[in-house]
Design a protein that fits this description.
Length: 102
């Protein structure tokens, strides 16, 4: 089943619109800075989900210095973006390969 991708620019932080451009190729490393709640994590995660949907060969690896913070700061917001914003179903529209370090 194919999903239509519509980018609503009103829902994207203006500072991160470049991430959605079709010819934008992310550099090997990107550093985003700003105050707490400025939309860095949401904007980058949303743009990466958008790219994965638009280009079937686009994969994401998400890493953090402290693995214990990954669930609350990345995985839960990412799942919200995927299921609520883009209306995708786990196991049908996308796969999630979870590896936890204990």
């Amino acid at each position: 089943m194919s999903k239509t991708i519509v980018l609503n620019k009103d829902q994207v932080n203006e500072k991160f619109l470049h991430l959605y451009k079709s010819k934008y190729i992310p550099p090997k490393y990107s550093i985003y800075f700003g105050g707490s709640g400025s939309g860095k994590s949401f904007s980058v995660l949303d743009a990466m989900v958008y790219k994965c949907m638009k280009y079937s060969t686009f994969d994401i690896a998400i890493l953090r210095k402290t693995a214990s913070t990954l669930t609350n700061t990345v995985l839960l917001p990412l799942e919200g973006i995927i299921t609520k914003r883009y209306k995708l179903d786990k196991g049908v529209d996308y796969e999630y390969n979870k590896t936890e370090k204990r």
